[in-house]
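Please check this:
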Amino acid sequence: MNKKQFFLGIILASLIGGVIALAGASYLFRPNSVSNFTDKQNTSLVNMLSDEKFNVPDGINFVASAAAVTPAVVHVKSSVSITQSQRGSDPFEEFFGFRNPEREMQPREAMSSGSGVIISEDGYIVTNNHVIENATKVDISLEDNTRYTARVIGTDPTTDLALLKIEAKGLRFVKFGDSDKMRVGEWVLAVGNPFDLTSTVTAGIISAKARNIGILRNLENNLQIESFLQTDAVVNRGNSGGALVNLAGELIGINTAIASDNRSGTFTGYAFAVPSSIVKKVMDDLLEYGAVQRGLLGVSIQDVSPELEDRISEKLFTSRGVYVAGVNAGSGGEEAGLKTGDVIIGIDGVETNNVAKLQEMVARKRPGDKVEVKYLRKGKEAKATATLKNLSGDTNIVKVVPPKIVSFNGVVFEDVKSEMKQRLKIEGGAGIVSVNDETWKESGAKAGFIITSVIGSGGRYKISSSDQLVEVLKDNIGEEIVILGLYPNGQEYYFEIKVE
């Protein structure tokens, strides 16, 4: 091929390419004659996905997880008695020292609601403490609208968790997952009952871990634990106590708080859940001991920060960690050799970059457990083994004996808990757990009412326990009796009933 033929070939190729380009441009930019949005979208150059060509990968498909979890998330409704003004008196009141219900209204009941998660087939349920706090009665509604009255097995205000129990078998439940394995950016589902909309599922990601947002302040002994999982899954009022699960349908958190608008109280982008690592430990403690067993390191702590260095005028040689501001005498921390000024950077091989993470790691332990503490002293790394102790300064486990439960003709009674006796200044009594007998319901008996005395044919009986109450009721079968007592808010009340 000579030079002349070569240059003619180039010119010809250029001409052909230009014609093709002009034709393509003419096609792309010709006036659009499509007159409906269905055709517009079907012919869009960016509409590259179709049912045949695009499927959601199994790893981010929410359907299976939602189907597994939803039947095990319940609606929790709590009744709280509100004190009413008390006026006037009558001879009955003066003689027996109790209010006459004919002369004044019965205690008004306020209602609150939230969510709960079934964690065993025999009816144990985890929820938030603030959902059932001071409740005189706790009602549970399953997804299929089956209703139960729940007993409160135990509560832990320091983590805002509570354990409930309903009398049922073969229930669907959510298996505990490992919140430690969750990574920022992983998909999660929030399942609950916002605004009384039952069985609501929302999706989001883990936005952060070990968040302390200061919602559990001012608790007794300052032992609150805040090491929340943060998520952008939509959570609103009523979701409290509901499930945060991974895509395998495993429980990795209990939804507890939201970042909300100050006026409306609605969700503004982030929600916070107690991680399952803490939830499982608290639930195990409440089930086995009736109370949470808290192992304490015995040190005063705060987050490391440049502001802290300026305040104490000391170089800490690290930008992250937990500064030891003080060490309690006789504590596990003191016995391990920790000193004021140390910076704790790890517990049992896990980095503790802030107070929330340190508290979370220690909260998983019980008195008598040992932890390996990694810390910096004047910039030099060291390790020590500390034995955790309880509030009393020893390693004993404190077990709370659950109140005895008895029943009589469809009414369930339990012994009054010691803290309730102290608060109401009574020596004993029998609390009504549930009422499933129409005669008792019509007489005015309600769950939460505490029976302290019974007036029968044999005189007045002072009630100290549920067993004694049942014996008195049996002795008065066929008789009209007067039952006297008070509500948890201190309001006194009585009602009459014929014992069948």
About this structure: Residues 299-387 form a domain with the Pdz3 Domain fold (CATH 2.30.42.10). The mean pLDDT is 84. The CA atoms of residues 120 and 239 lie 20 Å apart.
